[in-house]
Amino acid sequence: MYKFIERRRDKQRAVPMQVLALGFSRTGTTSMRIALKKLGYNETNHGFDVWANPLEMEMWTEAINAKFYGKGKLYGRAEWDQLLGDYMAVTDMPHILFAKELIEAYPEAKVILTTRNVDSWWKSYHDTIGSALNSLIRDITVRFDTTNARKAREFWHLASLAMFGTTNVTEEVAKKRYLEYYDEVRSFVPADRLLEYRVGEGWESLCQFLEKGVPTEPFPKTNDTKTFQNHMKRLTVSVWGRLVRQLAMPAFLVCCACFAFYYAGGIRIFI
After folding, report:
1. In sequence order, what are the residues at sequence separation of 6 or more whose Cβ sits closer than 8 angstroms to the Cβ of residue 230?
2. Whole-angstrom distance, CA of residue 225 vs CA of residue 91
3. Which of 85, 140, 247, 262 could disulfide-pair with 13, CB 3.0 to 4.6 Å?
C-alpha cells in the first residue's frame, strides 16, 4: 500500500518545531502560512504541501488510519519528527486532526488558533472544500488522471471523514464540529501558550505573541473563495487537457488502421 514511507523511518528532526497554527481550514490558514514565512518560519507545512507530496500523504494516511480506525501504530514524537522534521511550523488540514498529539509532542511550540465567525466559516467551507469534495465532475475527472490527483482526492475524502465522522457533512454537522474543535484545543493548551487570532486582525497581536518585529507590508490575504474555485477549475481543465493529449495519438492510429483495413478490403473486392 505504501511506496514511500520507508524512506523516512530513520529521519531525525532537522529544525525545532516552533509554531502550531491549528485553526480550521478556511480560517485564513493559507494567509497564516505566508505570514509565518515572512516572520522567519521559512519551512511551514500546509495542506497544499501535503497535497503535492505523495510521501507526506502516505504518512498522514498512516497516522489517520491508526488514530481513527485502529489500523497500525499511533504516531508519537518519533513519527512526527519523521514526517515534520524539516518544518518549523504547521497549519491547516490534516494537521488539525492531530491537534492534541502535536501539542503534546512539541510542548515548546506556541499554538495559534485562527478563528472566524462560524456562519462565515461555513459559507466559505461549503463554497470551496465542501463543493470540491462533493463534485461529481471532479470524481469523474480524477478517475481518468494518472498523476497524483486521484490519490490526493482519496486522501482528502479520508481526512474529511476523520474530521466530521460522516460523508454527509451538513451545515448542522459542520458547525457543531467546528465549535467542538475550538473548545477541545483550548482545553489542551495553557493560556500563555495560546493565541486566538481572528482572521483580519493584522500583524500586531501575532507578532507580539511570537516576539517578532512587525513587518511594514500589509498582512497577506490569499486563497479566498474565488481564488480557490478558479484553482479547482484550472486543475480540472488541466487533467482533461492531459487526457485528450494522451488519447489523441492512439485515436489517430486507430483511425488510420481502420481506414487502411477498409481501403485494402475495398481494393480486394474491386479486384
Report:
1. none
2. 18
3. 85
pTM above 0.90, yes or no: no
> Which cell numbers in the block locate residue 98?
492531530
User: Model confidence over 202-237: pLDDT tens digits?
Assistant: 999 999 999 999 999 999 987 555 555 554 555 555
CATH code of the domain in which 32 resides: 3.40.50.300
Q: From CA 83, how far away is CA 11, in angstroms rounded? A: 8
Total count of domains within the chain: 1
Residue 71: half-sphere exposure toward Cβ, Cα within 13 Å:
9
- Rounded to whole angstroms, the Cα distance separating 83 from 44 reads 13
Closest CA to 2 of 61, 70, 75, 83: 61
User: Domain range spanning residue 24?
Assistant: 5-270
pLDDT, tens only, 165-207: 998 999 999 999 999 999 999 999 999 999 999 988 999 999 9
Q: Which among 118, 75, 82, 73 is positioned nearest to 98, based on CA atoms? A: 75
